[in-house]
Design brief:
- The protein has helices at residues 25-35, 139-147, 149-159, 169-172, 182-217, 234-240, 250-261, 315-325, 370-378, 380-390, 400-405, 413-450, 452-462; strands spanning 39-41, 46-51, 57-59, 66-68, 84-86, 101-104, 113-115, 124-125, 129-134, 176-178, 265-268, 273-278, 292-295, 300-301, 304-305, 311-313, 332-335, 343-345, 353-354, 358-363, 407-410.
- With 463 residues, the protein is an alpha+beta fold.
- The chain has a 4-stranded antiparallel β-sheet with strand order 2-9-6-7, covered by helices on one side. It has a 4-stranded mixed β-sheet with strand order 3-5-4-8, with no helix packed on it.
């Protein structure tokens, strides 16, 4: 059935948008709800709008300036995954301040926005990231609004039919935002700070688990020595079916030899696998802007699922595929393409389909603790073996037969359980952080849809 809106010429928005898509009823309804509250046009609350610079980078280390790129700008909070730092030779880089908002301007994740908390003050940012300074309203409230369903609809609205980048002054200015009651704004600020603390705790606990693993394996201070020149036997090349020099880098064998010197038992991963299944690629023509999540390699990390550049499948296609390709609670997921070697144990039932770049393993719990196994694969022990297997390729692929040969160090069950307990605590802290941010977004949505008093009543019930 056709959907249409009738809009008077005098009521066209400030940008004089003439494309019909911009005036879809659902968008007009949001506008009307915002107008019932005390509100601003977005340009009224912006005091500064600027993009960063393309700067030379190095690996991050202590006392260096963090460099926030598009992949680090995630909904509400900055993500450390893949973070780099600025080369110290760069003079006077643009620096961020607490309370700044950063947006992905172009490319993957365009429209994503984060707030700069105290942890990220004095970081710099790339040329594909926009920095906006907010006035009049609390920036912590603004970032929650932009990441709520209402804010996402606004960004979706200004994107459609526009030849400009999504995050341009002209497009951003079309967004309307209400001025919240102080209690709602304070809740957003407090919640984000609490979530940030929980995530920091999660990272700290996960590091404890990693350190305990490496200590028990005798690898706490191990630094692989990558040689510039080395030799290999022709018989070894024939045996491995590899002739690329990188495969025979001594550093890869060094870590295995170190484990053997420490009398650590090693077993191939195949010993613990009950079944192995690859996900599916339904084709980009089946991707949708909404629906059920299609979980690709970019949507999986050692901490769990992320919505990084999330693609979706229709309900109909999801129903066809779910029996075979939907991960279940307790499943062991392992990436094999693009970024191979990311391992994660599914903590709760989700609705979604895994891509062909992800393997779903059934692990024998009687032989090994799954959380311990995932940590081993995500640690330097697994990473170096995966790096060796996948070397020599432009596009990284980790073959199932290579996966099965992965050498797993075996520690006593009591140590495995201690490590697994820390991993689970880490994931629980991260889950609570996500839950808090969802509650903040819901409070803002209730304020718009049902009124601010209803939102305050909602907040009083969840405290």
């Amino acid at each position: 059935m056709a959907v249409f809106s009738i809009v008077k010429l005098s009521e066209l928005e400030g940008a004089k948008r003439l494309d019909a898509e911009y005036y879809r009823p659902e968008y007009l309804e949001i506008d009307q709800k915002i107008k019932r509250l005390k509100h601003f046009q977005f340009n009224q609350i912006i005091s500064s709008f600027s993009s960063g610079k393309n700067l030379p980078q190095i690996e991050c280390c202590k006392d260096k300036i963090a460099y926030i790129r598009t992949q680090n700008v995630r909904p509400i909070l900055i993500d450390k995954e893949g973070l780099t730092c600025i080369n110290p030779q760069v003079k006077n880089p643009p620096l961020l301040e607490e309370g700044d908002l950063v947006f992905v301007r172009v490319g993957e994740g365009v429209g994503n926005s984060s707030i700069i908390t105290s942890e990220w003050a004095n970081s710099s940012y790339s040329d594909n990231v926009i920095r906006i300074k907010i006035r009049y309203l609390d920036p912590y409230f603004v970032i929650v609004f932009l990441n709520s369903n209402v804010g996402k609809k606004y960004l979706e609205r200004v994107k459609k039919g526009s030849a400009r980048s999504l995050i341009s002054k002209e497009n951003i200015n079309l967004i309307k935002i209400f001025e919240p009651l102080p209690k709602i704004a304070q809740y957003c600020r407090d919640t984000i700070r609490e979530a940030q603390t929980l995530i920091a705790n999660s990272e700290s606990i996960y590091s404890q688990a990693e350190n305990l693993l490496l200590e028990e394996l005798g690898l706490k201070d191990f630094k692989p020595k990558y040689e510039k020149t080395y030799t290999a036997k022709l018989s070894d090349a024939f045996s491995a079916h590899r002739i690329d020099a990188e495969y025979f880098q001594p550093a890869y064998e060094e870590i295995i030899e170190k484990l053997r010197e420490n009398n650590i038992e090693l077993q191939p991963l195949r010993k613990f696998i009950l079944s192995i299944q690859k996900g599916i690629e339904p084709g980009s023509e089946n991707y949708r802007d909404e629906g059920k999540p299609f979980i690709r390699v970019s949507n999986l990390s050692k901490y769990g699922f992320t919505d990084r550049d999330q693609k979706y499948l229709s309900e109909e296609l999801y129903q066809q595929l779910r029996e075979t390709y939907e991960p279940k609670q307790g499943d062991f997921l392992l990436t094999k393409d693009a970024t191979p070697g990311i391992a994660y144990v599914v903590k709760e039932q989700i609705e979604g389909i895994i891509s062909s770049g992800i393997l779903r393993l059934q692990i024998n719990d009687n032989e090994i603790n799954k959380e311990y196994l995932a940590l081993c694969i995500n640690s330097i022990v697994g990473k170096m073996q995966v790096e060796r297997d996948c070397g020599g390729s432009v596009i990284l692929h980790w073959k199932p037969e290579q996966v099965k040969r992965l050498q797993i160090p075996i520690l006593p069950l009591s140590i495995q359980q201690e490590i697994a307990s820390l991993v689970q605590q880490s994931h629980e802290a991260r889950r609570k952080a996500k839950e808090l941010l969802e509650l903040a977004k819901r409070a803002v949505e209730i304020a718009i849809e049902e009124g601010e008093e209803k939102a305050i009543n909602f907040l009083s019930r969840i405290k």
